[in-house]
Design brief:
single chain; 231 residues; mainly alpha; 10 helices
Length: 231
């Protein structure tokens, strides 16, 4: 049995590779198969591989990073809160409190300073800012300020909680091989099996699996010779 066959038989499900690169490998295989203009018997395998790639969740690799769990919803909520703080400072706090000692308290929570904080510190310091809004809304001539600020801040906390739940799910998925990994691995193994039926030479099968993931395929100009009976 050729060495490459032993390698591939138990390879895809246990491949020590990042999810980003595993999807890149699958994408490269799919591209190579399409460019090779293989017979119709490969069509179901290409469909299965394409579906597996579409369902593959690459973002699992982002857990634990510097911006772990930084979902679009959280970024939008963070932006909304910082915009609210900035608008309130410009429209109410600065015009009405600039000459008073309490203005220094508000300046601690300017947008430029809050924007540099991580999410934990942002939530903590913003809660202190809420207390300032509550204490001084009358002097700011903005009766609805406490309620308006709490509404925007609540969106931020809810988005943060949702992100935390997502991170927990991601961490759990990393304990074992996730279902989308298995689906993609199965599709790749079936493609490999069909290629072995179609080509005589192991090298002709192996060339479809590009682990560099950056190599450009030129299979049309150098396509492997197929068995006459399989054409």
């Amino acid at each position: 049995m050729p060495a490459y066959q032993l390698y591939f038989d138990n390879f895809f499900t246990t491949l020590p590779i990042s999810r980003v690169n595993f999807k890149a490998l699958g994408t490269a295989v799919l591209t190579a198969l399409r460019e090779a203009e293989l017979p119709a018997v490969f069509a179901p395998h290409l469909t299965e591989l394409a579906a597996a790639l579409d369902a593959f969740e690459v973002s699992l690799t982002e857990a634990g990073g510097a911006t772990a769990g930084s979902t679009e919803a959280f970024r939008a909520a963070r932006k909304d809160w910082l915009t609210f703080v900035d608008d309130t400072m410009k429209d109410y706090v600065t015009p009405r409190l600039r000459k008073l000692p309490v203005y220094a308290d508000f300046r601690q929570y300017q947008k430029s300073r809050l924007a540099r904080l991580d999410q934990v510190n942002l939530l903590q310091q913003s809660k202190s800012l809420l207390a300032l809004y509550e204490a001084h809304y009358e002097a700011l001539h903005y009766p609805a300020l406490p309620a308006d600020a709490r509404a925007v801040y609540q969106q931020l906390t809810q988005a943060d909680n949702a992100r935390t739940i997502t991170e927990a799910i991601i961490d759990a998925a990393r304990v074992s091989i996730s279902g989308d990994w298995l689906r993609l691995a199965r599709a790749l193994r079936r493609v490999k099996a069909q290629l072995e039926l179609h080509f005589d030479e192991p090298a002709a099968v192996y060339r479809f699996f590009d682990f560099g993931k950056v190599r450009k395929y030129s299979l049309k100009s150098s396509a492997p010779v197929a068995r006459a009976s399989a054409a």
